[in-house]
Specification:
single chain, alpha+beta, 3-stranded antiparallel sheet, 3-stranded mixed sheet, 6 strands
Length: 137
């Protein structure tokens, strides 16, 4: 891999702490969500992952769409990240990417999502590790 950029962030306190990027652009309080017994008055790792995946997937989708001659001005990507317990005493994630591309019919949109799923770095990192469902809305 030819490195294009390196993001650096430090977390202290785990799910009851703080996460900061080295450049200071990210500085968030991390707290467990109410569903996991926490106060829910901050962000959590799953929200950060969802935001990152949604943004990355949409950027990759625009890149793929441009190469295919499509304009996606009104598109959006929503990532839903599930945290669950597995049968080994640990935890795992599952993702649904809900993609709105009103400019395209469903078949073309589905092709675009599948092509984007091959390009997006988050998709490439998760492939074979967690289930990722692509949904055309």
């Amino acid at each position: 891999m030819r490195v294009l950029y390196t993001a650096i962030a430090t977390a202290e306190g785990g799910r009851n702490g703080q996460a900061k990027s080295l450049d200071g652009n990210l500085d968030v309080r991390i707290v467990p969500p109410k569903e996991l017994g926490g106060p829910g008055d901050g962000t959590n790792p799953e929200q950060l992952f969802a935001a990152g995946y949604a943004a990355c997937f949409q950027s990759a989708m625009h890149l793929v769409a441009k190469a295919k001659g499509h304009d996606l001005t009104d598109s959006s990507v929503t990532a839903e990240v599930d945290l669950g317990a597995n049968d080994k005493g640990g935890f795992e994630l599952a993702v649904r990417l809900l993609v709105s591309v009103p400019e395209l019919d469903d078949d073309v949109a589905r092709e675009l999502l599948e092509a984007t799923h091959q390009v997006c770095p988050y998709s490439n990192a998760t492939r074979g590790n967690i289930p990722v469902e692509l949904v055309v809305e």
